[in-house]
């Protein structure tokens, strides 16, 4: 099986697992904070069309040659090296302050150790087996993302220790931070989105296995608090983590002999709303969409062609108001009105001929 096919099927398998697990996680959170949830948003491909709509094609001459870039140009941070561990000092501080969670120190230690051990073995084994090149072309250990897997182990531990026993907002904060870690890995040009999705799935599954092992060892010993009673509130506040793919079958023509053909989009996002009462609330939505693209006809007559950037990256942030109306005990309808900002970069193909470098560049833009 080729690397491309292995990556394709791994992406689909892990996304299916992630969806199932996140549904369980959000169901747990929802039973404590929400009545029938507001209508869940569906990841769409309209944003990609918006990105392409502001394309500006131009030809120029340059004398430099750059490596392919998949992340967000100009974005560089090392914060993701630390956010993956952030829940641990929070847990330790609360326990030292006497604010107990689910487990005693010894039970928590075994659970965390087992979870991270399973995660580390799964990540290292998969990296070695797949040997995928990173977007920045530095190493062949891209799939899956170890930073993201570590972040989701820590977030799931916080969820189990305090989110399920004290307040679901601990879970919201932990998973939001883990998601931000994964997004930063992509923006830093260190991982493909499929690497991050796989890392999230490995992190959550590893923690479930680690806690299962600790439960077998300790049985009923070391349990300080039990899960919340799960009473349903009339407040439909929610947090939604989105991961998915979108397919495109069309293309965009420009000039007489050139066009942009769009590939598959990978989507990752997060949305949440706090309802002031059972009908009205405020919230926000953040989403990152990455779409592969190819400029057809750009290589005609060229002696050599280099792809400097073949990804449309589209990031959006919006805030607004949310509405909810319960139709029955289990069914409700929701509506929202959001406004925000959207940032999009472009794709860049380089054709090297003699002393000059002809560039065909499709540029993105900013929309409000």
Attribute tags:
seven-stranded antiparallel sheet, 8 helices, about 40% helix, alpha+beta, about 375 residues, four-stranded antiparallel sheet
What is this structure, in a nutshell?
By secondary structure, the chain is of the alpha+beta class. The chain has helices at 3-33, 46-53, 80-83, 87-96, 105-130, 146-163, 168-187, 193-218, and strands at 57-62, 238-246, 251-254, 258-275, 280-296, 304-309, 311-326, 332-344, 347-353, 356-362, 366-367.
Plain-language structure description:
The structure is a single chain. The protein is of the alpha+beta class and 368 residues long. The longest helix has 31 residues, at 3-33. Helix content is 39%, strand content 29%. The protein is built from eight helices and eleven strands. Helix 1 (3-33) packs antiparallel against helix 7, helix 6 runs antiparallel to helix 7 and helix 6 (146-163) crosses helix 8 (193-218).
The amount of helix comes to 25-40%
Which consecutive residue ranges, at least 5 long each, have pLDDT under 50?
Answer: 5-9, 11-68, 299-303, 354-358
* Quaternary: single chain
Largest sheet: 7 strands, antiparallel
């Amino acid at each position: 099986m080729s690397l491309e096919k292995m990556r394709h099927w791994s992406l689909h398998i892990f996304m299916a697992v992630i969806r199932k697990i996140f549904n369980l996680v959000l169901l747990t959170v929802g039973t404590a904070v929400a009545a029938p949830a507001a209508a869940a948003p569906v990841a769409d491909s309209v944003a990609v069309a918006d990105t392409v709509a502001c394309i500006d094609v131009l030809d120029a001459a340059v004398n430099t040659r750059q490596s392919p870039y998949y992340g967000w140009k100009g974005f560089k941070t090392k914060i993701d090296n630390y956010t993956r561990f952030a829940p641990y000092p929070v847990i330790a501080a609360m326990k030292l302050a006497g604010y107990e969670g689910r487990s005693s120190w010894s039970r928590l230690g075994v659970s965390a150790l087992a979870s991270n051990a399973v995660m580390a073995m799964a990540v290292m084994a998969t990296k070695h087996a797949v040997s995928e090149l990173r977007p920045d072309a530095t190493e062949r250990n891209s799939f899956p993302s170890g930073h993201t897997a570590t972040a989701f182990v820590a977030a799931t531990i916080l969820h189990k220790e305090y989110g399920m026993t004290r307040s679901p907002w601990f879970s919201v904060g932990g998973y939001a931070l883990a998601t931000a870690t994964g997004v930063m890995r992509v923006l830093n040009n260190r991982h493909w989105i499929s690497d991050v999705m796989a890392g999230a799935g490995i992190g959550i599954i590893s923690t479930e296995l680690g806690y299962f092992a600790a439960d077998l060892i300790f049985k009923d010993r070391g349990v300080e608090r039990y899960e919340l009673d799960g009473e349903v509130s009339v407040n439909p506040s929610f947090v939604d983590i989105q991961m998915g793919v979108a397919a495109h079958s069309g293309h965009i023509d420009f000039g007489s002999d050139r066009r942009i053909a769009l590939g598959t989009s990978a989507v990752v996002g997060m949305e949440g709303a706090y309802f002031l009462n059972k009908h009205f609330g405020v919230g926000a939505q953040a989403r990152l969409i990455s779409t592969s693209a190819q400029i057809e006809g750009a290589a005609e007559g060229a002696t050599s062609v280099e792809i400097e950037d073949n990804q449309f990256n589209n990031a959006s942030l919006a805030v607004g108001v949310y509405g909810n109306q319960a139709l029955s005990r289990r069914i409700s309808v929701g509506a929202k009105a959001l406004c925000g900002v959207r940032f999009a970069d472009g794709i860049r193909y380089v054709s090297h001929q003699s002393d000059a470098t002809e560039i065909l560049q499709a540029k993105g833009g900013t929309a409000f």
